[in-house]
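Priority: medium. Attachment 1 of 2:
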């Protein structure tokens, strides 16, 4: 698995919000979302999916 750091999140963001964000873009998560205040870590099945997530979500 490849862990990806997601920063600059609203303190109101939830794990379900992130799961929905990735799911809507057909980006499969491989594990739980570890959410802290303002940031999160998500796991992807492999490096290719992690890179695709970065490319897809950059600038959003």
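Attachment 2 of 2:
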């Amino acid at each position: 698995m490849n862990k990806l750091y997601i920063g600059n999140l609203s303190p109101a963001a939830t794990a379900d919000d992130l799961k929905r964000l990735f799911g809507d873009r057909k980006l499969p998560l491989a594990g739980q979302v570890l959410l802290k205040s303002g940031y999160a870590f998500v796991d992807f099945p492999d490096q290719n999916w992690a890179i695709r997530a970065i490319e897809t979500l950059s600038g959003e």
